[in-house]
Amino acid sequence: MFRSRPGRRGGRAAVLLAAATLMFTLGGCGVDPLTPQAARAESGDDGKAGGTPRRVDCERVKCIALTFDAGPGKDTPHLLDVLKEKQVPATFFLLGAKHVDRYPKVVRRIADEGHEVANHTWSHRILTDLEEKDVREELSRTQDAIGKITGRKPVLMRPPQGRTDSTVADVSRELGLAQVLWSITAKDYSTTDSALIRERVLTQAHRDGIILLHDIYDGTVPAVPGIIDELHRRGYTFVTVPELLAPGTARAGAVYRPEKD
């Protein structure tokens, strides 16, 4: 299995090749995925069970979550400018090596501007190929690096290629991390065509969906304004992943994956 970090363009594409096409093989590994609807239901109908406070009520509003993997990178500041202009929150699953450690000011800006900062491992190794101690190292090292910069350790993580198992779940639970997968992908590792990236996202968009994009690829950030504008036109409200689950709270170790309509 390819194990190197996605620090260069060719390596990134190889590492993330399966991210958009992978059939999640969670059955039989002791990890049962939960939907955003299930997370919201866990808090009780009155929303007073200690869950996440709601900025919007995704039971009443057509919500969708915009997420970015494998950054921050050189284009992330421009992406943050776009999100700020359009008043859209996002969730950033950050890589440690050559990303968090290279762009600490960008990490701090992501947090300061109200986006959710999350964990995407230190070096993008496939967690299901690793021993438990190495899974812990991949996650805890990024936890510590982000915590040092922002003053808050992440509560969400996304396993590379969406691959998880009971060992990954156990370590995630130990570190206070819920696992977040996705339901909408643009395969932006495979094209620099921003119009195509936009079309792929819009074709798959659905209520309570989680969009997977990567702010490290040249075609992605230019596609974001058009994606936001069209989804707004269709009546969607953008939320962070915790807001999508609110008033429920993401449970450490659990896996969250939306179901398409």
TrEMBL record:
<dbReference type="GO" id="GO:0016787">
    <property type="term" value="F:hydrolase activity"/>
</dbReference>
<dbReference type="Pfam" id="PF01522">
    <property type="entry name" value="Polysacc_deac_1"/>
</dbReference>
<keyword id="KW-0479">Metal-binding</keyword>
<protein>
    <submittedName>
        <fullName>Polysaccharide deacetylase family protein</fullName>
        <ecNumber>3.-.-.-</ecNumber>
    </submittedName>
</protein>
<dbReference type="InterPro" id="IPR050248">
    <property type="entry name" value="Polysacc_deacetylase_ArnD"/>
</dbReference>
<feature type="domain" description="NodB homology">
    <location>
        <begin position="62"/>
        <end position="239"/>
    </location>
</feature>
<dbReference type="InterPro" id="IPR002509">
    <property type="entry name" value="NODB_dom"/>
</dbReference>
<keyword id="KW-0732">Signal</keyword>
<feature type="signal peptide">
    <location>
        <begin position="1"/>
        <end position="28"/>
    </location>
</feature>
<keyword id="KW-0378">Hydrolase</keyword>
<dbReference type="InterPro" id="IPR011330">
    <property type="entry name" value="Glyco_hydro/deAcase_b/a-brl"/>
</dbReference>
